Amino acid sequence: MQIRKTITKLLVLIQICLYITFLYIDIFNTKFHYLSTKFKYLSIIICFLITLIHQKKNNPKDLILLRLGLFFTVIADLFLLVYNYPAIGVSIFCIVQIFYTIRYNFTKEIKALKIRIIIVFAIFVIYIILNIFIFQEKLEIIIPITLLYFILIFLNTIKSIINLKSKKLENYLIACGMILFILCDINVGLYNITEYMSIGLPKFLEDFSSIAMWLFYLPSQVLLSISYKSLE
Predict the structure, then answer these.
(1) Which residues neighbour 156 within 8 Å (Cβ) at sequence distance 6 or greater?
(2) pLDDT at 29
(3) Which of 18, 110, 179, 181 fits a 20 to 30 Å CA distance from 152?
């Protein structure tokens, strides 16, 4: 157990160093800007590696769901950061949120999944109707996928806050992680809104959101990665 904690602390320390480095590169737009994306993606891989260090102690199902969530996060960021396929990346993030839905709703997971399946179906029916009868196939697929994703992460964030009533350490880590996660996504939305909608942002807000995305994102993933009970 002590070795696991030591390795985890070392990886978190590496995360802090990567975090400070890529934020410095992004804020001051240094000549090493090409390294920023590499450091960001490496930091997400390390978050997944942290989950592999955990011992299946109290609730192995919880750990499996956490590992699946972080594993698919690595894949999603591969498409978003490395290959620049936002529709695929956000779609995979929807899968991530479904794993977290199950993780945060152990006693009601089937009901929770049914609700989300209905939401998925409804959103894509609306998308098809809008495309055929209103936008005439000009509506970007990323828009309904993003809407679906935001609904999923919003519901999961609310559930993580509700779970705080149990006053367990892991629930505080999860709630803080999900709040930072959704703050990241709000800034992602602000930064990309001009690309898909005829809305202009003030330059300072666009600059801030470009930094704030990862300002919130990496801490959220680190908190989620260490939220398993075996580290108590």
Answers:
(1) 97, 100, 101, 104, 178
(2) 77
(3) 18
Cα separation, 173 vs 178, in Å, equals 9
Nearest to 73 by CA among 56, 92, 60: 92
Enter the tokens of residue 70: 């972080």
> Helices (DSSP H) in the chain: which residue ranges?
2-28, 33-53, 60-77, 86-104, 109-133, 142-162, 169-196, 203-225
Angle between helices 86-104 and 169-196 (to 10 degrees): 160
Q: Concatenated DSSP letters for 39-96?
A: HHHHHHHHHHHHHHHS---S-HHHHHHHHHHHHHHHHHHIIIIIS--HHHHHHHHHHH
Q: What Rg value do the Cα atoms of the chain yield, rounded?
A: 18
Whether 216 and 209 have beta carbons less than 8 Å apart is answered as: no
Q: Mapping DSSP to helix (H, G, I), strand (E, B) and coil, where does residue 232 land?
A: coil
Instruction: Estimate to the nearest angstrom the gap between the alpha carbon of 87 and the chain centroid.
Output: 15
What predicted TM-score, i.e. pTM, was given to this entire model?
A: 0.85
Q: Give per-residue burial for 181-206: e unless 16+ CB within 10 Å, then b.
A: bbbbbebbebbeeeeeeeeeeeeeee
Q: What is the dihedral of CA 157, 161, 164, 168, to 10 degrees?
A: 30
Structure tokens given for 67: 């590992």
Largest CA distance in the chain: 62
Q: For residues 156 and 162, give the distance between their C-alpha atoms in angstroms, rounded to a whole number.
A: 10
pLDDT of amino acid 230: 46
CB 163 within 8 A of CB 174: yes
